[in-house]
Description:
Layout: H1 28-37, H2 41-53, H3 57-61, H4 76-90, H5 98-132
Helix pairs in contact: 1-5, 2-5, 4-5
Amino acid sequence: MRMTGPSFARPNVTIHSFQGHASPHMTGTTWQHRLDAAHGVEEVVAAARDFLAVFGPLELAALPEGCRPPVKIIDAEDVSSYAFELVRFECAERAETAQIVHKLARFFSHASMRLAQLTARDSGASDDSRQSA
């Protein structure tokens, strides 16, 4: 028996998480997954640039000076340095910017840890290739 009709129509389904409000920000889990799935330093740096791009200029301008992102994120050092500054400031955060500083600190801390993992992996691989030569 085949049932048809509007009450049995399949709704549009998405694999993207639902946030309940219109926002360009992905969920924290999605950003963390993107970092975890990165296969190289360049992918982590690109994710950091993309993450910052979802914040509007007014949001970033409202940050305390020590928490504003660098003009450009070029390499792993930029990501790690910014993570350090955010975490350092987060310890003495102000209530009016606490939420955005926390989001930035959480992302950039995770990015910095992932960069350390990738760098250690790449360093170990190059050590192995030198020993076999």
